[in-house]
Amino acid sequence: MKTSHTFSILFWINSSRSTNNKADLFLRITVNGRRANIGLKRKVLIDQWDKKAKKVKGTNAQAKAINNLINESQAKIYSIYQELKYKEELITAQLIKAKFFGEDEGAKSLHEILTYHNEKIEKTLSAGTIRNFGVTQKYIDRFLKKKLKTNDIYLKQLNFKFISDFETFLTSYYPKGHFKAMSHNTVMKHIQRLRKIITLAYHLEWIDKDPFVRWKPTFEAKQREFLNSHELDLLERYKFPIERLDRVRDLFIFSCYTGISYADIIALTKTNLMIGEDKNLWIITKRQKTGSPVKVPLLEKAEEILTKPLCTKSAEVH
């Protein structure tokens, strides 16, 4: 880790729970004031324990065996610490303890579920939705590096505080090219995507509990403005000096008269135009995002746009 933090190792005996003048030997790891105790499964005679040296007095075989255990345990803890530091991973007392016992070897990380989720949605969701998940993942990576000073964490380390801190990070983050931080609703969307990914990990039994169980999304109501008939007419009749803007306007107007989104409009071809039971032209297609069927009549204004040479290319209806 690049940030400064405190780290210490202490060997001690629990004399308050001694039996026959013998007490259990413990190893305490402290990182940034947070402790984790490790029982070394050895009994030490209280009057033979050197409180200052943190070792057993004497040179007999038993004393040497316990002191060797102390030295080996200390070396192992330092080795784990140095490895985490070298990899710039999050360092906690509990994580070092888990590695000491080898408990983390089968543990899944946040990036493992992100990778699994990306592969899962590759051929099941629309390109736009996949792109949105990609943007969320970039913010997750930036949060890990900037706030937690690590590249990855174990899924079992996720908790309500992680979610809360991630929300705070997004609220104050200024996306590149933007002059203000993202809106509250945008922040909620990113956290909802993270929630879907973590819920997948929960169902896969990669984690024992859902860290989102107490988290509730909140959205701010937005007042959407609509064009009235007069405004729509002015937009239709306006002469744009730039051909590109004229095509953009036509796509927007076409969407107004059909209710079809831009992503679905540019995917239309002649095969999507059919004669309905009323003997009029209809657009028959499916929404790319959800796969749900779309069947709308081709109104006169929308049909006029399809006959425009410049729009034929932009709408890809040929």
What do you see in this structure?
There is one protein chain. The protein is of the alpha+beta class and 318 residues long. It has 3 domains: 7-101, no CATH class; 110-203, Orthogonal Bundle (DNA polymerase, domain 1); 229-315, no CATH class. 45% of the residues lie in helices and 15% in strands. It has helices at residues 61-86, 93-101, 110-121, 127-146, 160-171, 184-203, 229-237, 243-258, 262-265, 300-306, 309-315, and strands at residues 7-13, 22-31, 34-45, 49-50, 55-56, 273-275, 281-286, 293-297. Strands 1-2-3 form a 3-stranded antiparallel beta sheet. Strand 1 (7-13) and strand 2 form a beta hairpin. Helix 3 crosses helix 6, helix 4 (127-146) packs across helix 6 (184-203) and helix 8 packs across helix 11. The longest helix is centred in the N-terminal third of the chain and has 26 residues, at 61-86. The chain is elongated and about 100 Å long.
What structural class do helix, strand and pairing data support?
Answer: alpha+beta
Strand order of the largest sheet: 1-2-3
Strand content: 5-15%
Number of strands: 8
Number of domains: 3
- List segments where confidence is low: pLDDT < 50 over at least 5 consecutive residues: 311-318
**How large, in whole angstroms, is the Cα Rg?**
32 Å
